[in-house]
Specification:
Helices cover 47% and strands 14% of the residues. By secondary structure, the protein is of the alpha/beta class. It folds into 2 domains: 212 residues, Rossmann fold; 37 residues. A 7-stranded parallel beta sheet has the order 3-2-1-4-5-6-7, with helices on both faces. Helix 4 packs parallel to helix 5 and helix 6 crosses helix 7. The two termini are 32 Å apart. Belongs to the short-chain dehydrogenases/reductases (SDR) family. It comes from Paenirhodobacter ferrireducens. Its EC number is 1.1.1.30. Keywords: Oxidoreductase.
Amino acid sequence: MSLKGKTAIITGSNSGIGLGVARELARAGADVVLNSFTDRDEDHALAAEIGREFGVTGRYIKADMSKGEECRALIEQAGACDILVNNAGIQHVEPIDTFPVDTWNRIIAINLSSAFHTTAAALPLMRKAGWGRIVNIASAHGLTASPFKSAYVAAKHGVVGFTKVTALETAEEPITANAICPGYVLTPLVEAQIPDQMKVHDMDRETVIREVMLTRQPSKQFATVEQLGGTAVFLCSEAAAQITGTTISVDGGWTAL
């Protein structure tokens, strides 16, 4: 599944799922553009390191995904966009009646509206190149719901719907749009939560993972960032040329319940 010669832009990709996806796309031969809202030396060094490791070009471009103009500028500054992975996202847990309005607006902007802005800027470049792949990182919460996560669930459902519209608008072109819906993924952020959960529940590591953190994930195993990256690579391959407008769940059976 070679992606040699393609340029992939991955939003929110200096850690976690985005970084895992970027690494797998680079492993497949794609030049990668990493992104986040910071502009540190280590951000640029991370992109360069991926480039060296996989023999591709690795760049880092700062852009705040809560701001539409910066989302579009990211694509313009990259100069090419054969593969767009909309991954940037944040979370907040609180009941609807006390959910902060500013936090709601920020989650919708970063988790949903950013995908609109980047896609709008990327499609002309894909059409000019005669090929394109859009992979939106949604969530199991794009297909189901949990209490106290109103903004996140609304945004991820929106991402799934937006993916379908994008697919229909590009259906007769060599461009596809699909959404990956992860369940719980073992990222550094999640890993850091395990010791605290062990203390709170007075459980050992394996028990707190199975009985607390993965209570809704039937496999009782975290998905990995490498698995999500591999799924993205597949969706960008020619084997997936007729897969568009759909979701692929990487959730250990969560949405089968």
